[in-house]
Amino acid sequence: MDREKDSKLNETVKFEATKDNPVEPREILLSVFKSLEEKGYNPINQIIGYILSGDPTYITSHNNARNLIRKIERDELLEEILRAYLETNRD
């Protein structure tokens, strides 16, 4: 049994984000970013705070941004950010 456990620890787990959500993470991020800017917050810091903690109070309720960002999972937000970054910075 211990060998079985050890062999599983050496395997790479494949992560696939679910695509069940009809709301586009990109559109939500852009909308939340704009709402945070309008209220005078640093959008990058606030969004990072939300992603790391899961605490929706990092996001303003202005323009319904707080409810909007909670429609998608934090891992989906990270996926969108990483995808956009890599597409922009790929050689």
TrEMBL record:
InterPro entries, per database record: IreB
HAMAP family: UPF0297
PANTHER family recorded: UPF0297 PROTEIN YRZL
Record-stated family: Belongs to the UPF0297 family.
NCBIfam families associated with the record: PRK05473.1 (NF003997)
Name this polypeptide is given: UPF0297 protein E4100_03805
